Amino acid sequence: MSERLELVLHNDIEALGTAAARLGAFLETLTLPCATIYAIDLAFEEIVSNTIKYGYVPGRPDRIEVVLTVDAGTARMRISDRANAFDPLAADAPDLNLSTEDRPVGGLGIHLVKNLVRGMEYRRDGGQNILTLDFADAETTGPRTGEPA
Amino acid sequence: MSIDVTYRERQPGLFELTLAGRLDTDTYAQVEATLDGIFANAVRGIQFDMRDLTYLSSMGLRVLIKTMKRLRPVRGTVTLTHLQPQIHKVIEIASVLPKENIFSSVEEADAYFDAMQSKVLGQDG
Fold first, then answer.
1. CB distance B65–A20 less than 8 Å?
2. Any CB–CB contact under 8 A between A88 and chain B?
3. Which CATH number goes with the domain that contains B21?
Protein backbone atom coordinates (compact mmCIF):
# COMPACT_ATOMS: atom_id res chain seq x y z
CA MET A 1 0.00 0.00 0.00
CA SER A 2 1.33 3.39 -0.96
CA GLU A 3 0.34 6.83 0.28
CA ARG A 4 1.39 10.10 -1.27
CA LEU A 5 1.08 13.74 -0.32
CA GLU A 6 2.06 16.64 -2.54
CA LEU A 7 2.33 20.15 -1.18
CA VAL A 8 3.18 23.28 -3.12
CA LEU A 9 3.70 26.35 -1.01
CA HIS A 10 4.77 29.94 -1.38
CA ASN A 11 7.97 31.09 0.22
CA ASP A 12 6.45 32.83 3.20
CA ILE A 13 6.33 31.76 6.80
CA GLU A 14 2.52 31.94 6.96
CA ALA A 15 2.30 29.38 4.17
CA LEU A 16 4.67 27.14 6.11
CA GLY A 17 2.17 26.99 9.01
CA THR A 18 -0.70 26.05 6.73
CA ALA A 19 1.35 23.41 4.93
CA ALA A 20 2.63 21.99 8.24
CA ALA A 21 -0.99 21.58 9.38
CA ARG A 22 -1.83 19.68 6.20
CA LEU A 23 1.22 17.48 6.60
CA GLY A 24 0.24 16.83 10.24
CA ALA A 25 -3.29 15.81 9.23
CA PHE A 26 -1.88 13.46 6.58
CA LEU A 27 0.60 11.88 8.99
CA GLU A 28 -2.22 11.21 11.45
CA THR A 29 -3.92 8.97 8.90
CA LEU A 30 -0.83 6.73 8.62
CA THR A 31 0.24 3.97 10.92
CA LEU A 32 3.84 5.08 11.29
CA PRO A 33 5.80 4.95 14.54
CA CYS A 34 5.76 8.18 16.58
CA ALA A 35 9.49 8.67 16.05
CA THR A 36 9.11 8.55 12.26
CA ILE A 37 6.19 10.97 12.29
CA TYR A 38 8.18 13.35 14.47
CA ALA A 39 11.19 13.14 12.16
CA ILE A 40 9.10 13.87 9.04
CA ASP A 41 7.36 16.77 10.76
CA LEU A 42 10.63 18.26 11.96
CA ALA A 43 12.54 17.78 8.70
CA PHE A 44 9.73 19.51 6.82
CA GLU A 45 9.73 22.52 9.15
CA GLU A 46 13.49 22.90 9.37
CA ILE A 47 14.31 22.52 5.67
CA VAL A 48 11.39 24.56 4.34
CA SER A 49 11.78 27.38 6.88
CA ASN A 50 15.48 27.53 6.05
CA THR A 51 14.71 27.88 2.35
CA ILE A 52 12.13 30.59 3.02
CA LYS A 53 14.38 32.57 5.34
CA TYR A 54 17.79 32.18 3.71
CA GLY A 55 17.38 30.58 0.29
CA TYR A 56 14.90 32.88 -1.40
CA VAL A 57 15.05 36.65 -1.55
CA PRO A 58 12.50 37.82 1.05
CA GLY A 59 9.42 39.37 -0.50
CA ARG A 60 10.02 37.93 -3.97
CA PRO A 61 7.30 35.30 -4.46
CA ASP A 62 8.39 31.82 -5.45
CA ARG A 63 7.50 28.27 -4.53
CA ILE A 64 8.61 25.13 -2.77
CA GLU A 65 7.39 21.65 -3.66
CA VAL A 66 7.20 18.79 -1.23
CA VAL A 67 6.33 15.21 -2.08
CA LEU A 68 6.00 12.64 0.66
CA THR A 69 5.60 8.98 -0.25
CA VAL A 70 4.99 6.24 2.23
CA ASP A 71 5.22 2.68 0.96
CA ALA A 72 5.26 -0.44 3.03
CA GLY A 73 8.32 0.03 5.16
CA THR A 74 9.67 3.31 3.79
CA ALA A 75 8.91 7.00 4.04
CA ARG A 76 10.61 9.38 1.65
CA MET A 77 10.25 13.13 1.30
CA ARG A 78 11.50 15.17 -1.62
CA ILE A 79 11.76 18.91 -1.21
CA SER A 80 12.54 21.04 -4.25
CA ASP A 81 12.90 24.76 -4.70
CA ARG A 82 14.49 27.29 -7.04
CA ALA A 83 16.30 29.20 -4.31
CA ASN A 84 20.04 29.86 -4.07
CA ALA A 85 22.04 26.64 -4.16
CA PHE A 86 22.30 25.19 -0.68
CA ASP A 87 23.54 21.74 0.23
CA PRO A 88 22.55 21.01 3.83
CA LEU A 89 24.92 18.03 3.86
CA ALA A 90 27.82 20.42 3.37
CA ALA A 91 26.64 22.85 6.05
CA ASP A 92 28.95 23.37 9.01
CA ALA A 93 27.90 21.53 12.14
CA PRO A 94 27.13 23.78 15.08
CA ASP A 95 29.75 23.79 17.83
CA LEU A 96 28.01 21.71 20.46
CA ASN A 97 30.98 22.00 22.81
CA LEU A 98 30.31 25.65 23.48
CA SER A 99 28.27 26.15 26.62
CA THR A 100 24.67 26.95 25.79
CA GLU A 101 25.04 30.54 26.91
CA ASP A 102 27.92 31.10 24.50
CA ARG A 103 26.19 29.61 21.50
CA PRO A 104 24.46 31.46 18.73
CA VAL A 105 20.71 30.92 19.07
CA GLY A 106 20.32 29.58 15.53
CA GLY A 107 21.93 26.92 13.36
CA LEU A 108 20.56 23.83 15.04
CA GLY A 109 17.83 22.93 12.55
CA ILE A 110 19.94 21.17 9.93
CA HIS A 111 21.87 19.39 12.66
CA LEU A 112 18.62 17.98 14.07
CA VAL A 113 17.45 16.83 10.64
CA LYS A 114 20.74 15.05 9.91
CA ASN A 115 20.41 13.18 13.17
CA LEU A 116 16.77 12.18 12.76
CA VAL A 117 16.71 10.90 9.18
CA ARG A 118 18.06 7.59 7.94
CA GLY A 119 19.44 9.04 4.74
CA MET A 120 19.75 12.37 2.98
CA GLU A 121 20.72 13.16 -0.59
CA TYR A 122 21.17 16.53 -2.27
CA ARG A 123 21.50 17.52 -5.87
CA ARG A 124 21.38 20.75 -7.82
CA ASP A 125 19.58 20.19 -11.07
CA GLY A 126 18.29 22.70 -13.62
CA GLY A 127 18.48 25.59 -11.17
CA GLN A 128 16.71 23.62 -8.47
CA ASN A 129 17.75 22.35 -5.07
CA ILE A 130 16.44 18.82 -4.73
CA LEU A 131 16.73 17.25 -1.33
CA THR A 132 15.59 13.69 -0.73
CA LEU A 133 15.15 12.47 2.82
CA ASP A 134 14.63 8.87 3.87
CA PHE A 135 13.12 8.04 7.21
CA ALA A 136 13.56 5.09 9.50
CA ASP A 137 12.06 1.87 8.31
CA ALA A 138 8.43 1.88 9.36
CA GLU A 139 8.25 -1.92 9.43
CA THR A 140 11.24 -2.49 11.63
CA THR A 141 10.36 0.21 14.15
CA GLY A 142 6.60 -0.18 14.19
CA PRO A 143 4.42 -2.99 15.45
CA ARG A 144 4.72 -6.04 13.22
CA THR A 145 1.63 -7.64 11.80
CA GLY A 146 1.08 -10.72 9.70
CA GLU A 147 4.36 -12.30 10.72
CA PRO A 148 4.44 -16.06 11.00
CA ALA A 149 4.44 -17.11 14.65
CA MET B 1 -0.93 24.41 15.05
CA SER B 2 -1.02 26.03 18.42
CA ILE B 3 0.40 26.20 21.88
CA ASP B 4 -1.11 26.98 25.27
CA VAL B 5 1.21 28.78 27.65
CA THR B 6 0.50 29.34 31.32
CA TYR B 7 2.76 30.29 34.17
CA ARG B 8 2.88 30.87 37.90
CA GLU B 9 5.47 31.91 40.42
CA ARG B 10 5.87 28.81 42.55
CA GLN B 11 8.51 30.19 44.89
CA PRO B 12 9.87 33.72 45.03
CA GLY B 13 11.75 34.11 41.74
CA LEU B 14 10.97 30.62 40.46
CA PHE B 15 8.50 30.63 37.60
CA GLU B 16 6.89 27.49 36.25
CA LEU B 17 5.94 27.76 32.59
CA THR B 18 3.58 25.08 31.29
CA LEU B 19 3.62 24.42 27.55
CA ALA B 20 0.89 22.38 25.86
CA GLY B 21 0.92 21.72 22.12
CA ARG B 22 3.64 22.54 19.63
CA LEU B 23 6.63 24.82 20.06
CA ASP B 24 7.69 25.65 16.51
CA THR B 25 8.06 28.38 13.88
CA ASP B 26 4.38 29.24 14.28
CA THR B 27 4.26 29.46 18.05
CA TYR B 28 7.67 30.41 19.43
CA ALA B 29 6.88 34.15 19.36
CA GLN B 30 3.95 33.55 21.70
CA VAL B 31 6.19 31.78 24.21
CA GLU B 32 8.85 34.48 23.90
CA ALA B 33 6.21 37.15 24.60
CA THR B 34 5.14 35.28 27.74
CA LEU B 35 8.77 35.04 28.83
CA ASP B 36 9.23 38.77 28.25
CA GLY B 37 6.37 39.32 30.69
CA ILE B 38 7.95 36.98 33.24
CA PHE B 39 11.32 38.68 32.95
CA ALA B 40 9.73 41.97 34.04
CA ASN B 41 9.98 40.35 37.51
CA ALA B 42 13.07 39.44 39.49
CA VAL B 43 13.57 35.96 38.02
CA ARG B 44 15.91 33.35 39.53
CA GLY B 45 14.67 30.31 37.70
CA ILE B 46 12.38 29.11 34.92
CA GLN B 47 10.94 25.63 35.11
CA PHE B 48 9.42 24.41 31.85
CA ASP B 49 6.69 21.83 32.41
CA MET B 50 6.65 19.89 29.13
CA ARG B 51 4.28 17.02 29.90
CA ASP B 52 1.80 18.20 27.25
CA LEU B 53 4.33 19.47 24.76
CA THR B 54 4.14 17.16 21.75
CA TYR B 55 6.58 18.82 19.38
CA LEU B 56 9.67 21.01 19.61
CA SER B 57 11.73 22.22 16.65
CA SER B 58 14.90 24.30 16.45
CA MET B 59 12.77 27.39 17.04
CA GLY B 60 11.80 25.87 20.38
CA LEU B 61 15.45 25.17 21.19
CA ARG B 62 16.10 28.81 20.42
CA VAL B 63 13.58 29.81 23.10
CA LEU B 64 15.38 27.59 25.65
CA ILE B 65 18.81 28.95 24.72
CA LYS B 66 17.61 32.55 24.94
CA THR B 67 16.09 31.86 28.35
CA MET B 68 19.38 30.43 29.60
CA LYS B 69 21.21 33.48 28.29
CA ARG B 70 18.80 35.81 30.06
CA LEU B 71 19.27 34.01 33.36
CA ARG B 72 23.03 33.95 33.18
CA PRO B 73 23.68 37.43 34.70
CA VAL B 74 21.72 36.48 37.85
CA ARG B 75 23.14 32.95 37.82
CA GLY B 76 19.61 31.65 37.51
CA THR B 77 18.54 28.16 36.53
CA VAL B 78 16.55 26.63 33.67
CA THR B 79 14.98 23.27 34.42
CA LEU B 80 12.77 21.04 32.29
CA THR B 81 10.33 18.49 33.63
CA HIS B 82 8.26 15.64 32.16
CA LEU B 83 9.71 15.51 28.66
CA GLN B 84 8.07 13.24 26.12
CA PRO B 85 10.59 10.83 24.53
CA GLN B 86 10.85 12.60 21.15
CA ILE B 87 11.33 15.99 22.80
CA HIS B 88 14.01 14.53 25.04
CA LYS B 89 15.77 13.13 21.98
CA VAL B 90 15.78 16.49 20.18
CA ILE B 91 17.21 18.25 23.23
CA GLU B 92 19.87 15.58 23.55
CA ILE B 93 20.88 15.76 19.88
CA ALA B 94 21.28 19.52 20.14
CA SER B 95 22.93 19.15 23.57
CA VAL B 96 21.19 22.31 24.57
CA LEU B 97 21.33 21.75 28.25
CA PRO B 98 23.05 19.26 30.48
CA LYS B 99 21.30 16.18 31.82
CA GLU B 100 21.42 17.70 35.30
CA ASN B 101 18.78 20.24 34.26
CA ILE B 102 16.23 17.65 33.07
CA PHE B 103 13.88 16.03 35.59
CA SER B 104 11.03 13.60 35.70
CA SER B 105 9.44 15.27 38.71
CA VAL B 106 8.84 18.82 39.90
CA GLU B 107 10.20 17.88 43.35
CA GLU B 108 13.58 16.95 41.89
CA ALA B 109 13.65 20.10 39.77
CA ASP B 110 12.81 22.20 42.84
CA ALA B 111 15.56 20.55 44.83
CA TYR B 112 18.04 21.33 42.06
CA PHE B 113 16.87 24.95 41.90
CA ASP B 114 17.22 25.28 45.69
CA ALA B 115 20.71 23.77 45.61
CA MET B 116 21.84 26.09 42.82
CA GLN B 117 20.39 29.11 44.56
CA SER B 118 22.05 28.39 47.87
CA LYS B 119 25.32 28.02 45.96
CA VAL B 120 24.79 31.46 44.40
CA LEU B 121 23.84 32.99 47.76
CA GLY B 122 26.83 31.31 49.40
CA GLN B 123 29.17 32.85 46.84
CA ASP B 124 27.56 36.24 47.28
CA GLY B 125 27.77 36.03 51.08
1. no
2. no
3. 3.30.750.24
Strands (E), chain A: 3-10, 63-71, 74-81, 119-125, 128-135
Q: Which domain holds residue B10?
A: 3-124
Residues contacting A61, CB < 8 A, separation 6+? A10, A11
Mean pLDDT of A37-57: 95
- Record: contact A109-B58, CB cut-off 8 A: yes
| A28 touching chain B per CB within 8 A | no
Residues in chain A within 8 Å Cβ distance of B26: 16-17, 20
Q: Do A100 and B65 touch (CB under 8 A)?
A: yes
Residue B71, number of CB atoms within 10 A of its CB: 18
User: Please, which pLDDT band fits residue A143 given cuts at 50, 70 and 90?
Assistant: very low
- Would you call B61 an interface residue with chain A, using a CB distance cutoff of 8 Å? yes
How many structural domains are present in chain B? Answer: 1
- ipTM of the prediction: 0.90
Rounded Cα–Cα distance for residues A32 and A24 (Å): 12
Identify the CA nearest to A129 among candidates A67, A80, A91, A75: A80
pLDDT in tens, A100-114: 777 776 679 999 999
**A98 touches B at CB < 8 Å:** no
Architecture of domain A3-141: 2-Layer Sandwich (3.30)
Amino acid identity for residue A37 in this structure = I
Q: Does the CB of A145 have a partner CB in chain B at under 8 Å? A: no
Going from N- to C-terminal start, the domains of chain A cover: 3-141
- Mean pLDDT over the full length of chain B: 93
